[in-house]
Amino acid sequence: MKSLDSKVNIIPLIAKADTISKSELQKFKMKLMSELVINGVQIYQFPTDDDTTAKINGAMNGHLPFAVVGSMDEIQVGNKMVKARQYPWGIVQVENENHCDFVKLREMLICTNMEDLREQTHTRHYELYRRCKLEGMGFADVGPEKKPLSMLSTGLQETYEAKRLEFYGERQRKEEEMKQMFVQRVKEKEAILKEAERELQAKFEHLKRIHQQERIKLEEKRRNLEEESIAFCKKKAACDLFQSQSFLATGSSIKKDKDRKNSNFM
């Protein structure tokens, strides 16, 4: 809670207040408030500077922390339905001020002090948050001579201008770094692509040489086959000519023998 009291309005509550007796509840309230004071936890105090609400707010500050009971169940009490908790020993009504402080809490938050809560959030918590953020960015509430910036005509403007130039320079530096990084990555990518292109070109040249060698071998085989075919055709023609000449010579010899035999018989 100590880490939250500078960021939000803290209103202490005691939940499930129907689990303890009235006397124990009062003792518990006193103990809780004492521990908050000892630990330096700043809680929201209902304002007493307005005459119209000073009396009721002062009384409600004395009731802190509020002891509340919650329930979504509706139970019939008399002739009406109320939100309450049903127990074997009786009924605890949420909106009965004799049973818990829920009505007081609702009245204080919604009806009486809503505007003050909004103002506290804006003027205290948000301003504290804004101041811390500005100090983290280098802005301060005082100038070089420990004077408030509101008293210095150009203090805030000079601080703003200095911060603007600082951020502009930082942006330029980061843009330059990103540009250099982009150029470096482009160069690396180009180098990779060139290396891949060189490898592909070398592979292409190697395949091209293999293809040329295979083509030369095939051309050589084709020429050899053509030469063998021509030689075979020549041999075949010579053989055919020899066979035809032999056949003519044999036929002529047979005819001569036949004519000789015929002449002998005559």
Report on this structure.
This protein has a domain at 13-136: P-loop containing nucleotide triphosphate hydrolases (Rossmann fold). Strand 4 (80-87) and strand 5 form a beta hairpin. It is built from five helices and five strands, in the order βααββββααα. The radius of gyration is 57 Å and the shape is elongated. The protein has helices at 22-38, 51-63, 102-112, 114-136, 155-265; strands at 13-14, 66-67, 74-77, 80-87, 90-93. Helix content is 66%, strand content 8%. By secondary structure, it is mainly alpha-helical. A three-stranded antiparallel sheet has the order 3-4-5, with no helix packed on it. The termini are far apart.
Write down the Rg: 57 Å
Number of strands: 5
Structural class: mainly alpha
Helicity level, as a percent range? 55-70%
Low-confidence stretches: 148-153
CATH architecture descriptor name of the domain at 13-136: 3-Layer(aba) Sandwich
H/E topology pattern: EHHEEEEHHH
How many helices? The count is 5
CATH class of the domain at 13-136: Alpha Beta
Kindly identify the CATH topology of the domain at 13-136. Answer: Rossmann fold
Distance between the termini: 162 Å
Overall, the morphology is elongated
**What is the overall pLDDT average?**
84
Strand order of the largest sheet: 3-4-5
The CATH homologous superfamily of the domain at 13-136 is named P-loop containing nucleotide triphosphate hydrolases
The percentage of residues in β strands lies in 5-15%
Largest sheet: 3 strands, antiparallel
